[in-house]
Amino acid sequence: MTRTWSATVRSHRGRSNDTVRWTARSGTVQVVIGNTDNARMKQTLPLCHITFCHLVLEVLVFGTLVQTARAQPVAGPTDPDATRLPANLVPNVTAVHPHDPAAFTQGLLFKDGFLYESTGQYGASSLRKVEIATGKVLRKKDIPQRYFSEGIAIVGHYIYMLTWREKTCVVFDTATFKEAAAFPYAGEGWGLCYDGRSLILSDGGATLRLIDPKTFKTTGKIAVYDGPDPKKGKPVANLNELEFIHGEIWANMLGSKYIVRINPTDGRVIGWINCTNFFPKSIPANDPERVLNGIAFDAATNRIFITGKDWPVLYELQLHE
Hints:
CATH architecture of the largest domain: 7 Propeller
Structural class: mainly beta
Helix content: under 10%
Oligomer: single chain
Order of helices and strands: EEEEEEEEEEEEEEEEEEEEEEEEEEEE
CATH topology of the largest domain: Methylamine Dehydrogenase, Chain H
């Protein structure tokens, strides 16, 4: 899709008017000063670095320098909640549903009109099928005390569930919750999602692993960074619960009220979703345990569901730019 905007501006030193036109296509924005055939300046900028509501057009004397579409700085992993984070997508709450306040949510996903949820803590971990409107737990499987349940993903008829430090992925039949298989893996398990080909696993660091669901062997890695390129960008760590949405990896960051959107091809941060306003009033904002964690996506209706650890509510969202 190609979109074009134009504006007439005057130099701040009284120079005659100029037409400024910027065209967005294929991930870039081309800025043209003057008419297209005899432009005084042309410049192509990466679309990912531009927030259109903050476009600045500043024509300097003699027309030798034009600064356009100044990039809004992006906060790195050391300050993910800074106000300068670009809120590319704006969440709109369409419904608030009940959620078990004793569910220490580690994984969340949507399938066939229901939510599937994994809850953590040793001795309290579980796998659940949940009715969205009421929060009622329709099916529950208690997980052995030796496991701390983590992220989940559905592949075909099976739910893959990570464990925190037990280095085991347990596979369950989605219909019955009967254990079907178990796979060993190295390191910790935090979040899990499925892109239609590979499982994607987070371990709390800044690197995601691509996993073959048939063997659970690592087939690739994605180093997540925030910036123009991997060398200049900052690693984005504390990646937790994952969801695959419209070709992007969405991730909770442990302790943050932002969801990060990641390009799966190169690990670049596409943008952030500010969830600051979606936080239960009954939970202190600085509570270190009951944090935002849990993203589920209904592709058929474009609904997104978010919740947190021991939260009493589940938010249903629609997103718009």
